[in-house]
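Example record

One chain of 195 residues, shown exactly as stored in the release files.
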Amino acid sequence: MPATPSCMTRSPPSKKISPGMTQTEQKSIQCTSITVHPLLKGRKMDEDDEERLEIPTVSFVGLGPHFGDDSIFFDKIAASMQKWWFALVCIDRHWWLYAFEIAQKRMWVLDSMYIGEHNNERLKIHAYAGRIIEDMAKVSMPAYQRTENGLPRFYPSVPKQHNGCDCGVFIIKFMQFWSLEKPLQLWDKVKLNML
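Predicted structure tokens for this chain:
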């Protein structure tokens, strides 16, 4: 790719020949310039470069400046009076649930596929969710003090799914039983088959 792409290119010769001319008439057409990142100028991209370009940069994006102003989407008063908040997440076609215990400032991760350890990417997602939840708590309860190192996370024992498609039903039942303060194990695969 040239360092400074030309914005004036010749069009193909037209069939029209003017009287007295020995050459075909040519017109110049305008094109938009292509912006090239300075690090890529003069470099030919290989497969590794293309793969790196497809990976998004992960950064924390907080709540918008007017979050909580519209009670249709988030009722600050109603939210501040709850004991628990639930936050559902779906990534890579898998659903799991965060249960935020407001008074104790704890976050419970209810995941029907959790087997005892998470990779770094999942831990980053948990930390990000905790920051968003604490931002929401600050909006609904101005006196709320954010935790210094992020919300502590707990992984309760939950029934496990045995396929790749029931996670949504599991989190619905987790929310139902969690709200009623019933042991989650009371709901199991037998009950899933009855739905």
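Notes: The chain has two domains: 8-53, 76-194.
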